[in-house]
Specification:
Strand order of the largest sheet: 1-2-4-3-5-6-9-10
Largest sheet: 8 strands, mixed
Helix content: 25-40%
Strand content: 15-25%
CATH topology: Rossmann fold
CATH class: Alpha Beta
Order of helices and strands: EEEHEHEHEHHHHEEHEHEHH
Shape: globular
């Protein structure tokens, strides 16, 4: 049960009004919490509640997620997300900040920390390095032109796809529980409550933009991403769930690109390990921060 309640705020980035919650304690050191794809800022409530007495916690909704605006042209490239995070930190005027980020948010935060190493003093990335080298190699077999044609076709399909409607909150909750079987009933209810909005006809739909289902056909070249990881100056904690789809960077070789990183693996945890093994995760994080 979440006892504390954050306040809702907004900032402007690239002409979009983006939402974030502020957990108060404004005089304390800033800690930014960045959620993953098709998620929302209230995903962090348990982490924030544990740390709010020591840090000034800011948790944004990424563009196209939660209560932030959707991108009019469906631009959900990594560069757009990194720009948004840079704008948030700039407007906070409190750098350097500490960051905890999950999945897509981890990829955004690690790039930001490599671009602006002086602005980040500690970073925790939960499965934030993206697809494994093996997955990327398989994707590249398609060729650039084929990937772009597929991207255009998928976006065209997404433009005609109406948001899925659930007849009841219970039906949406069931979908949330199916997505992550490790969640407790209370966790699933809380995450669902903040992930959906009610339609005029009484049905419920997820808040994220359907265009988020379509991944851009290319990213920075591998060498340039690795160079950004190598430019991160602050201590870095890379967290991985043993039962997740994500590839552990100590095993696939990516950890060598970081100057000062430690990899921690969590048993009996999947991709959302900060929910699956909350107490162990918090013990690691509190000691690290």
């Amino acid at each position: 049960m979440i006892e504390r309640r954050p306040t809702s705020n907004s900032f402007i980035s690239q002409r979009l009004r983006l939402h974030y919650v502020d957990w108060g304690n404004a005089g304390a050191e800033p800690l930014v919490l960045v959620h993953g794809g098709r998620d929302h800022c209230r995903n962090w409530d348990w982490v924030a509640e544990r740390l709010a007495d020591r840090y000034h916690i800011i948790a944004p909704d990424l563009r196209g997620h939660g209560d932030s605006m959707w991108s009019p042209d469906g631009d959900y490239s990594m560069l757009a997300f990194v720009h948004d995070l840079a704008q948030l930190v700039h407007q906070l005027e409190r750098a350097p900040v500490k960051i905890i980020a999950h999945s897509l948010g981890g990829g955004i935060a690690l790039r930001f920390a490599g671009l602006y190493p002086e602005l980040v003093s500690r970073i925790v990335a939960i499965e934030g390095l993206g697809p494994s080298p093996a997955m990327l190699a398989e994707r590249r077999k398609q060729g650039t032109a084929e990937r772009i044609r597929r991207y255009i076709a998928d976006r065209r399909a997404a433009s005609g796809r109406a948001p899925k409607k659930y007849a009841s909150f219970a039906e949406a909750l069931e979908r949330m529980q199916a997505e992550n079987s490790y969640l407790s009933a209370a966790q699933a209810e809380h995450l669902t409550r903040h992930a959906i909005s009610r339609n005029e006809d009484g049905s419920w739909s997820w808040k994220f933009d359907n265009y988020m289902r379509v991944f851009p056909p290319y990213d920075l070249p591998d060498g340039e991403i690795e160079a950004l990881w190598a430019a991160i100056a602050c201590p870095t904690l890379l967290c991985y769930g043993e039962k997740s789809w994500a590839s552990n960077p100590e095993e696939d070789g990516r950890a060598v690109h970081f100057r000062n990183a430690r990899v921690v693996s969590f048993a009996d945890a999947g991709h959302w390990l900060h929910h699956d093994q909350f107490e162990r995760f918090m013990a690691e994080v509190e000691a690290f921060l």
